[in-house]
Amino acid sequence: MTIRESLELREKEYLSPYASLNMASKGRLKPEVECDIRPAFQRDRDKILHCKAFRRLKDKTQVFLSPEGDHYRTRLTHTLEVSQNARTIAKALKLNEDLVEAIALGHDLGHTPFGHAGERALNRVCPIGFEHSQQSLRTVDRLERGGQGLNLTFEVRDGILNHQTIGKPHTLEGKVVRLSDKISYIHHDMDDAVRAGILKEEDVPKEIRDVIGCTPSERLDHFVHDIVTNSMGKNDICMSEPIADAMKKMRQFMFENVYQNPVAKSEEGKAEMLMETLYSHFMKNIDDLPEEFLNLLSEGEPREQVICDYVGAMTDRFAIAVYEEIYIPKSWTL
User: Fold this and answer.
1) What is the rounded distance in angstroms from the CA atom of residue 248 to the CA atom of residue 188?
2) Low-confidence residues of the chain, pLDDT below 70?
3) Residue 107 gets which letter from DSSP?
4) Which residues of 7-28 are buried (b: 16+ CB within 10 A; e: fewer)?
5) How many CB atoms lie within 10 A of CB 145?
6) pLDDT confidence of residue 64
7) Cα angle: 120, vertex 107, 168; to 5 degrees
8) What is the pLDDT of residue 258?
9) How far is it between the farthest Cα atoms of the chain?
10) pTM above 0.90, yes or no
């Protein structure tokens, strides 16, 4: 018996009857020789951790564009916080921690530079649309490994695709990540907003503070404990009505005071213009794309999709550099 097989048997004995088991996975898009040490979901986690799209997350905006200071979240630190919260919940509920971690680490791989501003811009100019959860799935299925993809399991792919509010994951682990994504950004975006001087903790309405606490850490603790308490022994991941209602109100408060705040978002119009301009440039100058993206075109991929693949995968810094190279005279940047 291999190490992997013994780990799979241990899962069957220890995990919740509602957990996703490696031995019961629906498999991959293409057959693949099993590892003798790592079960499938752990292997998927490792594939994501080592891929180029994951490394690019460190230079992609979470909420604040080019903030003054070193302690603001990036798309990478957001991803790591989602993973940690999801693993805490999964461990308490005896769900598959490797599956949860793989979904969490991969859920935002398709996110654009400049946060949701970049996503809005590409969705506006591309006739086939652009949505980051779908692009995250395309990243792992098609774009990584020079167009070969990572060949992940169905369960990880499903969790990545369905991590947003409107998503309906097929596994409890996917549902854990879906909720963890929300509680993570509520936690850290409020923390960053206070750091930026946009909000003070006392700005949070008292009706919310009375239910889930007065600091980001208190709120995070309330959310995690509530999910664990209300999901224990159930074939579902859920929250109590008072906490769920408070989270909904907190999200609305964040949208009104941070995500749509003119101070926090004052530069986003420029970022959207930059993204739209890059998209337009490559539509008119398709041969300027790197070879790996031209190869996608030669394989029959739509031009609009391939340009979104390239521009959407850029980091903030690289997108600015490409824009400057195309449109700014070199003498102006000296």
Assistant:
1) 16
2) 66, 68, 264, 333-334
3) T
4) bbeebeeebbebbbbbeebeeb
5) 13
6) 78
7) 90
8) 87
9) 67
10) yes
